[in-house]
Amino acid sequence: MRVLTGIQASGKLHIGNYFGAMKPMIELQEENELFTFIANYHSLTTSKDAETLRQYTIDAAVDYLSVGLDPKKTTFWVQSHVPEVLELYWILSKFTPMGLLERAHSYKDKVAKGISANHALFSYPVLMAADILLYDTQKVPVGKDQIQHVEMTRDIAIKFNNEYGEIFVLPEHVVQEEVATIPGIDGQKMSKSYDNAIDLFMPEKPLQKRCNKILSSSTPLGEPLDWEGCNIYDIAALFLNDEEKLELQERYKSGKEGYGHFKKYLKELIWEELAEAREKREYYLSHLDEVNDILAFGAKKAKSIADAKMEKVRAAIGL
Ligand code: ADP
Ligand code: TRP
Q1: 55 to each of 12, 48, 49, 121, how far by Cα in Å?
Q2: 3-class SS at 223?
């Protein structure tokens, strides 16, 4: 099964990204033919300057490789290294009714928030359709906010196929329902925009400080604590199996430990979970040439598929 995902690189990754996006993606590479790219053309819609976009792109590559994306199993590249996607984007634009784009929730939401609209923001779903269709994608794992974009991709592909023959594979979205929303240190959804995130690769001391800031109730030491609805417990539970969760619940109920103990315990859990990833990250950060080689290798593989597809598309439409 060919599965394709796009990574929007936008700075430091946090525990919410790790459990909500990175881990589920990396698990996919075991049983599928996974295609993953860093969507830097898409990031242009929000990019501040050249240096930041370049930095975010390489950081995302390093971080995904560090947490286990395996370039031997997965085709991993930077979107702009296969610029054929832009040619397809233009061609697909002809099969994209204005009304379809005008109905896009994510565009409407952004405009409602006062973000000034430009054509790139408006036509974002067509570029996403090109990403998906260029590589004969069968499944697209997405968050709920992106389902509509995959549906639009199908609409565009159907319109094209109806006129010019069965050129495009119709993709399906897959929503990973089991991944709950990970709370931040204030109990709201963890997000880099809410200043409530625990970053993935914090040094040990700042990580402990961040854990110490997790909002908890003020039960005095010696009294049993309620693990239900406790932010520390909820984040810790992400790292634990069922048996370990029960053990932690018992520790809460025993009244022998306070929140301070559980904050230390949580820091240990995070620190240990990421030990291997941290080592790999150190390695990649000091061997950026290797990272660039991996991305170049992925781009080459992706490009050979893109080239073959574009030949068919051009021939079908008369270019
Ligand atoms: P942020 O909210 O920090 O800006 P992004 O929107 O860049 O995060 O999210 C990137 C990916 O990480 C998405 O797939 C999103 O679903 C996932 N993700 C982000 N925050 C969380 C969270 N708190 N819980 C679960 N998944 C999350
Ligand atoms: N729009 C996606 C996001 O914001 C990123 C993305 C770009 C993507 N192209 C894609 C995801 C193609 C899946 C398939 O997360």
Answers
A1: 11, 12, 10, 22
A2: coil
Which of 40, 78, 131 has most ligand 2 atoms within 8 Å of CB, for mutation?
A: 131
* 279 within domain boundaries: no
Instruction: Calculate how far, in angstroms, residue 149's C-alpha sits from the geometric centre of ligand 2.
Output: 9
Average pLDDT, the chain: 94
Nearest CA to ligand 2 atom 10: 6
Q: Give the pLDDT band (50/70/90) at residue 220.
A: confident
Find the domain containing 299 and state its range.
2-182+287-317
Residue 3 makes CB contacts below 8 A (sequence gap 6+) with: 28, 32, 33, 34, 35, 137, 138, 139, 140, 141, 174
pLDDT digits (tens, 9 = 90+) for 175-197: 876 667 889 999 999 999 899 99
262 with 293, same domain: the answer is: no
